[in-house]
Design brief:
Structural class: mainly alpha
Helix content: over 70%
Number of helices: 26
Number of strands: 0
Distance between the termini: 48 Å
Length: 464
């Protein structure tokens, strides 16, 4: 059963990677993979031993009754548990996409795009990547990638060029999210779990994360040439009959950005999941736009309302995300991810090699369960452990090098493949970027930046 789930996952991954040659949408492949993995797990329950997982063994010990029924109940509850975590991400994604589309409908991003005058590819690439880098630290890598794709559509007309810039946005957003406690979900996990403090995350990971971005940028500075062609702005009849005013554009843009910035503040104050803050921001912006356009005719204000922009949301990318995360959850339930973490410890031994491997693996398998497995494997050391081997166990204390390096590697390693991070998945869905295209054009740049940033961290905090 465990092997069959791996086979299904690999086949699903194959169909996702070859989406365009096979002409099968990646969302369909992901949904089939995720649901089929769970179907195999549930159907095999009655034929497998009760020691499938540690959690299942505890369940059977604590509750009496029909073992078969208990197994079904246990894994049904585990599925619902994973679904609640996945829903947090999906609702967060949908809320962020809606806010961005609403700002875009009001031409709010013109506040930024009108100030970017250069059409030189190299200069524009530096501007876009640096904005993405710092936006990601203040917001998060997922929201930043969504915002920046909307900006690129205003700045670059050629699809191939826009795809290249979008690929660099993935690298920049992931690098920016790694040095902020709210910039990437894995860094947030380590921050909330007590492994890392805010001061250490920012002070120790900023320079390695910046190097991770600067290396591919510098390489492209000497190889990229030419100018970008800006898209011709077309305005429909509704623009001339009842256009958005400068006050409306600025109001929606400012409130949209403040709404996105409000999300981490809301989470810190209330300790509620991030999607709750996103839904509150969306609700407030929805109410404001209704008030702004209340005197307009329905036909005129429809495109400027949340109801209107909801039709522009890329539902397929949301379903793709759902399928991928369901498949990863199934792998986690049968214990494959924890076995992988144990194998890394046995084979690699060195904690920094383990971190680098986890970072690269996160480009294939979601970094969240990998980091969660690492947090479960490597607990804070006891006094006896510190006395027995202080060199090894000192790296696992609060703010230890293992946790710092794990935050960097898990946050930036996913850039190696476009489906290796939330930012990459969002960009892939929004721009319909081909998996193989990204592999050929961007992956090597991402890996070089990742390894350069890793070497920078080791040079500063370990080697010297």
């Amino acid at each position: 059963m465990e092997i069959l789930i791996i086979v299904v996952f690999v086949l699903g991954y194959f169909f996702i990677a070859l989406e365009h040659p096979l002409k099968i949408d990646k969302a369909a492949s992901a949904l089939i993979t995720g649901t089929f993995c769970w179907a195999i797990l549930m159907m095999a329950i009655q034929f497998i031993p009760s020691h499938l997982t540690e959690q299942f063994a505890h369940f059977l010990t604590d509750y009496a009754g029909d073992a078969g029924l208990e197994r079904f109940m246990f894994f049904e509850h585990r599925l619902l548990f994973h679904l609640s975590e996945i829903a947090n991400i999906l609702f967060f994604l949908m809320g962020a996409m809606t806010i961005v589309e609403l700002v875009d409908a009001h031409e709010g991003f013109a506040v930024i795009t009108d100030k970017i005058k250069t059409t030189n590819k190299v200069k524009l690439l530096w501007v876009i990547c640096l904005i993405s880098f710092f936006f990601s630290a203040a917001l998060d890598n997922l929201t930043t990638s969504i915002v920046m794709i909307s900006l690129l559509r205003k700045l670059i007309d050629d699809k191939e060029t826009r795809w290249f810039f979008a690929g660099m946005v993935v690298i920049a957003a992931n690098a920016g999210g790694a040095w902020s406690p709210i910039g990437d979900v894995t860094t947030t996990m380590l921050w909330i779990g007590g492994q890392l403090s805010t001061t250490v995350i920012v002070s120790h990971l900023f320079i390695p994360s910046l190097v991770c971005l600067l290396v591919p940028l510098l390489l492209l500075t000497f190889t990229m040439k030419g100018e970008v062609k800006r898209p011709v702005r077309t305005r429909g009849l509704e623009h001339y009959t009842d256009p958005t005013t400068s006050r409306e554009r600025n109001t929606v843009f400012i409130l949209g950005i403040l709404g996105l910035l409000f999300v981490p503040v809301f989470k810190t104050v209330t300790h509620l999941p991030p999607f709750m803050g996103m839904m509150m921001s969306l609700g407030l912006l929805w109410a404001v736009t209704e008030i702004l356009h209340r005197k307009k005719k329905y036909e005129q204000k429809y495109q400027l309302s949340v109801i209107g922009v909801l039709r522009k949301i890329d539902t397929a990318s949301v379903l793709f995300f759902l399928g991928i995360l369901l498949a990863v959850a199934a792998l986690q339930e049968v214990g494959h991810l924890r076995e992988l973490a144990g194998w890394l410890q046995a084979e690699l031994g060195d904690v920094y090699s383990i971190n680098i491997a986890i970072g690269l693996l996160s480009s294939i398998v979601d970094n969240v369960p990998l980091v969660a497995a690492s947090m479960g494997m490597y607990d804070f050391p006891s006094a006896a452990q510190m006395a027995s081997d202080p060199g090894w166990f000192s790296t696992f204390v609060k703010d230890g090098n293992f946790w710092q390096f794990l935050a960097y590697c898990a946050g930036t390693g996913g850039s190696a493949l476009i489906i290796g991070s939330a930012a990459g998945v969002a960009v892939m869905g929004l721009e319909k970027i081909d998996f193989i295209w990204y592999l050929k054009k961007i992956s090597l740049l991402a890996i070089l930046g990742y390894l350069a940033g890793a070497a920078t961290y080791l040079a500063i905090f370990v080697w010297f």
